[in-house]
Structure formats: C-alpha cells, structure tokens
Amino acid sequence: NRKENLAVAVPREVDWKETAMVRVSMCIIILNTIFIGYQVRADLEAAKVDETLGLWVDYVDISFTVAFCIELCFLLRLKGSLFFMDDDRYWNFFEVALITSSVLEWVLHTM
Fold first, then answer.
1. pTM (predicted TM-score)
2. Neighbour-count burial for 18-36, b at 16+ CB within 10 Å, e otherwise
3. pLDDT by residue (tens digit) across 45-82?
C-alpha cells in the first residue's frame, strides 16, 4: 500500500512543476511578443527621423534571451532524458533551436 502511495505522489509533483513551468514560459513568451511589437514600431519611428533606439532595448532583448536559457535549463532538469523522448520532443527540439539562434544572434551582435 505504501508503494502505491509513493508511485502516485511522484507524478503529481512532476505535473505540478511542469504546469508551473508552462505558465512561466507562457508569460515570458507573451511579454517577449509584446516587446518585439514595441521594438519594431519604435525602430520604424526612429528610422523616420534618422535616430536609433537606446541601449536599453538591447538590454531588454538580452534579458529575454537569458530568461529563455534559464527556462530551458529548468525544463531539462525537470524532465531529464524525457525532454528528448516524450510526446513534446519535437517542440522541445524547436525550442532548443530558437534559443540557440537567439544566443548566436546576441554573440554575433556583440562582436
């Protein structure tokens, strides 16, 4: 009976953590989408008067990249090898590719 209780308790804990990670990820994605919309509009307005956006825009952009990297690390820690083998594996590979491209863009931008 005790083994059954332990077997049932572990998936609930993982589900709770996974649900929390999904919510945090969604918030980061929504905030990043709003920021990208603002950034594009502000960049167009600045280009009309031959100006550039302030450095704070780059800092916010880098902050989102760091947040996505941290989120990826948490997901890898939470799911372990299942990250590459569960039903969401294709989405996970896509997420890794997007984060890698963001990091590469940041590295190339700072060179």
1. 0.79
2. eeebeeebeeeeeebeeee
3. 999 998 888 889 999 999 999 999 999 999 999 888 88
